[in-house]
Write a structure and sequence with these properties.
By secondary structure, the chain is mostly beta strands. The protein is built from no helices and nine strands. β1 (about 25-30) and β2 (about 35) form a beta hairpin. The radius of gyration is 13 Å and the shape is globular.
Length: about 100
């Protein structure tokens, strides 16, 4: 378990690359062109249904394994920084979804 009590490793789970049978959503969070190393990325389903959350990695990175379909990423960081974007996940590919906040 991580020190912050979330339980997820910083940046999310590693593994699975393009061409596998996984659907992966991954990206980085940036603010004024620099990585945001403190905060959380959330994966939300239909109707803003909470699905998963990971703390951001030192490089602002995050990664989720998801079912194919449409998802919303919501990023929360200290100082009231917040961002959101939609992403489409498909089996066998990594959906790149950088978020600028």
């Amino acid at each position: 378990m991580s020190a912050d009590g979330c339980g997820a490793p910083a940046g999310g789970a590693s593994g699975a690359a393009a061409g596998s049978s996984q659907a992966v959503v991954a990206g980085r969070v940036l603010h004024d062109g620099a990585p945001v190393a403190r905060g959380y990325a959330r994966l939300l389903g239909t109707g803003d249904e909470f699905v998963a959350e990971v703390p951001l990695a030192d490089d602002g990175g995050f990664r989720f394994f998801a079912a194919p379909g449409s998802w919303t990423l919501r990023v929360l960081a200290p100082g009231g920084l917040r961002g959101e974007r939609s992403v489409q996940a498909e089996y066998g590919r990594v959906a790149k979804a950088d978020v600028t906040i």
